[in-house]
């Protein structure tokens, strides 16, 4: 039986995910995201809105909805299912209810149009309800409700997604994820 006198060498510590992250300022992330969006057909205002939404998610620690969404957004642009320059349209259904047609633009752009319309209606009628159709992923829902909260308004935001999960006992994807977010102004 042969033996070795060599001592086993320690293996280098594996890089963990945290050590591979590149830390940038929020301003630099905003600038980068806007440049990517504009470079892929988004007008400056759309690029600013979407980038703000993505950076806000990163700052809040919701990395799944942050700047790392850019590649999936750009893939949707290239596939023709997201129209980066489309402007949402608002149809007033009743004095306190409206519908935004996102025209397949960025969800943050359509969502922001909806929140602004809802806030405007709520100032006059005490409530404003807006639905959005023909849109895309709108990012972190907390960003949208914060926009209403900044105006002193309570906000409820709900969404759905494409089928991703089977129903209980099902064999195919039939249900989408449902996200909701609620915020209310309070006293200080």
What would you note in describing this structure?
Helix 2 runs antiparallel to helix 3, helix 3 crosses helix 5 and helix 5 runs parallel beside helix 6 (141-150). The mean pLDDT is 90. A three-stranded mixed beta sheet has the order 1-2-3, covered by helices on one side. Strands 4-7 form a two-stranded antiparallel ribbon. Strands 5-6 form a two-stranded antiparallel ribbon. It is built from six helices and seven strands; from the N terminus they run H-H-H-H-E-E-H-E-H-E-E-E-E. It has helices at 17-20, 26-39, 44-60, 70-79, 107-125, 141-150; strands at 89-94, 97-101, 129-133, 155-159, 165-166, 173-175, 179-183. The protein is an alpha+beta fold. The protein starts with 16 loop residues before the first helix and ends in a 5-residue tail after the last strand.
Q: What is the structural class?
A: alpha+beta
What coarse outline follows from CA principal-axis ratios?
A: globular
Sheet of most strands: 3 strands, mixed
Cα separation of the termini: 78 Å
Beta-strand fraction estimate: 15-25%
Helix content range of the residues, please?
Answer: 25-40%
Number of strands: 7
> Count of helical segments?
6
H/E series, N to C? HHHHEEHEHEEEE
What Rg do the Cα atoms give? 22 Å
In which order are the strands of the major sheet placed? 1-2-3
Mean pLDDT metric:
90
Keywords: Oxidoreductase
Protein name: Malate/L-lactate dehydrogenase
InterPro entries: Mal/L-sulf/L-lact_DH-like_ah, Mal/L-sulf/L-lact_DH-like_NADP, Mal/L-sulfo/L-lacto_DH-like_sf, Malate/L-lactate_DH-like
Family: Belongs to the LDH2/MDH2 oxidoreductase family.
């Amino acid at each position: 039986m042969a033996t070795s006198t060599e001592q086993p060498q320690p293996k280098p510590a594996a890089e963990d995910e945290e050590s591979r992250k590149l830390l940038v300022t929020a301003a630099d992330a905003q600038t980068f995201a806007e440049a990517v969006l504009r470079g892929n057909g988004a007008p400056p205002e759309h690029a600013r809105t979407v980038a703000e939404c993505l950076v806000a998610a990163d700052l809040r620690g919701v990395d799944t909805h942050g700047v790392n969404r850019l590649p999936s957004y750009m893939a949707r642009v290239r596939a023709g299912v997201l129209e980066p320059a489309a402007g949402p349209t608002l149809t007033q259904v009743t004095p306190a209810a409206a519908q935004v047609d996102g025209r397949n633009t960025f969800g943050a752009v359509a969502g922001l149009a909806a929140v602004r319309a809802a806030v405007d209606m709520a100032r006059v009628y005490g409530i404003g309800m807006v639905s959005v159709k023909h849109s895309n992923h709108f990012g972190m829902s907390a960003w949208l409700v914060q926009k209403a909260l900044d105006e002193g308004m309570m906000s409820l935001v709900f969404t759905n997604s494409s089928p991703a999960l089977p129903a209980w006992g099902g064999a195919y994807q039939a249900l989408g994820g449902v996200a909701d977010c609620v915020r209310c102004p309070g006293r200080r």
